[in-house]
Predict the structure of Major facilitator superfamily (MFS) profile domain-containing protein.
Amino acid sequence: MTGGSTARIPVLFGATLGLSGADLASIAATSDDIEHAFGVGNTEIGLLVSVVTLLGALFAIPVGVVADRFRRVRILAVSVACWAVALALSGSAQSYWWMLGARSLLGVVTAAAGPLIASLVGDYVPGSRRGRVYGVILGGELVGTGCGFVVAGEIAGLSSWRIAMFWLVPIGALVAWLISRLPEPARGGPARGPDRDAHDPVPRMLAERGVRPVRRMVLHDDPAQRSLWWAIGYVLRVRTNLVVIVASALGYFFFAAIRSFAIVYAMRQYSIPKSVASLLVVVIGVGAVAGVMVGGRLTDRLLRGGHPRVRVAMPAVCLLILSPVLAAAIATTSALVAVPLLMIGTAILAAANPPFDAARLDIMHPRLWGRAEAVRTALRAMAETSGPVGLGLVADSLRTVPQGWTYSVLLFMAPLPVAGLIALLGLRTYLRDVATALASVPEASPEAGR
């Protein structure tokens, strides 16, 4: 890859995820307008968010199969273009059920992003740089989410919530066109040749430590030709992969719930107008962007410095120390006290994601990257989908209780320390799973270059 192409890759993939984040944030920023337009409550608004995630999870599995067998760049470009069309239909809704149907279509086309981007990152980017690249990609998602809160909220205030949906359509069309101009990378990743150690120091560190692969899990043929059910069973038998799936699912459960009601919560908890709440959410989001950037770069640097388990250790630590910081921020009714604490908390939560994402590629055969990501997306979404609906139900049930929103959010924080403890289990299995993935793709393997 040329330097220009390498620089464009994380930016465009970040823009792709940013579009989805902006869409979900637009629903949150305009939720009160949609409630008034269609006569619905918090539960129905939560469903508008959850249906995208749920259908995205269901359709991620077949997309994962496609990602492991066919040209991915073209499929991703078409998917982003279809996403723009689906969003236009959502903004044109004349009833709640019309909007729910349009967002169901949005969920179907959103399914393509996760498996395709994961497979492409693995083939475009050397292993020692994937944390940093994922930091940029996830940073793009967060920037998109922030833009969704601010732009959609301002547009809705000046005109209507429908226009607040339409502003993303031309951006989606532009991103689709730019992605279509990317070259399709060779299968197997850039670190599968004689200069592998220059790209990825992990094989050398494994050899120095005498780490052996799990022999029963070593693959001796091309897994792209295996059935979907075989692939699902295999990726769930990789112990570190299962740990990462469960831990990240619990984290996203909390994040999805808070993202959906961030504006409403800030307005009620801190007694501030909507315009100020939208601005505060963006300010807090700066902490999340800083977190993914620092988390990705720091873990890559520590990896090159001789700490091969850092991509599992750092997320575990982040998840364990997160709850006290967030609890203090949520318990206060002062925005001046809450905002710095929330910035720190979101930075800690966000810092866990780039190393986790890079670790998933480390422990899997390249021809399983798409299906492995699809399985993770599907299982994570089973937890993530319930977040907005669950928080909406709990908040509605505590509507008459003083500080009902505070109690609801504190209750939804419970999975975070559990996720940290689960992540610690990955420290025992990560290196052996990496060695197994490397042993499954010898340097001379014919599928490494497909």
